Amino acid sequence: MLLEDLGNRIRSQRERLGLKQHDVAHALQVSPQAVSKWERGENAPDIAILGALAKLLGVSTDWLLDTYGEGLDVFEATVFASSVTGAYEKSLQMAAREFASWANGFFSQLTEAVLRHDGVPIKYMGDQCLCSFSGTEHRRRAVKAAFLAKRMVAENLQIGLSSGEIYLGAVGHPDYARADIMGEIVNIAFLTKDWAETNTESSVAATAAVVKPLEQECKLGESAEVNFKDIENPVRVVELRGISKPSEPGR
Q1: Is 129 left (phi over 0), alpha (psi -120 to 50) or beta?
Q2: Which one of 203, 208, 222, 246 is least enclosed by Cβ atoms within 10 Å?
Q3: What is the pLDDT of residue 246?
Q4: What pTM does this model have?
Q5: CA 43 to chain centre
Q6: Same domain flag for 115 and 35
Q7: Angle at 41 between CA 81 and CA 140, to 5 degrees
């Protein structure tokens, strides 16, 4: 969905119910500034609170996301995929509860890094985390979040970033569906992450679509044109070693 359209739907339904932005913020335990960003189309609500937001506004998640609209559920974003070195070995050595506790520890720090740069955590799978960044400067914010996460998380993270059009909508059986993101760009982010693990020193890599607008700001390492399995065209990927301090105003 275009973020402007999502914002308009949130605002129109809120106003129809006579609610103020701070009413929505208080009910969802987010800041009024976050609600304002949603309505201006600068960012999307966290996937985890979409259900609560829809319930508060008296609509379905499908209506909010315009799941059955024509093309409004596809928009440009930067996808962030991460995993942790040695997680599989740990899963064999730890009891299930112990492994979950370990994973929740680094997921908490990783999520804080993503939220600090206005990213949206989508889902957690084993040791992997999937997030998206959309709206203003989404590429730059994703890169900054990647390096903040590397500093905050004690475990060795591998991170892959890719930019392009993604689908956001309800996925699964109607009774159990959850909002998710899908598309080739999502697959490429995970493949780029895997490439970073074995081909870089920093364990952070991005596609050319992410890096090109930021070439003057990013510290770059090795690059390669990779033929990923099941991806039709070769993908140019680049190691990221850092991003310079001069940044967007207010960051």
Answers
A1: beta
A2: 246
A3: 52
A4: 0.74
A5: 11
A6: no
A7: 40
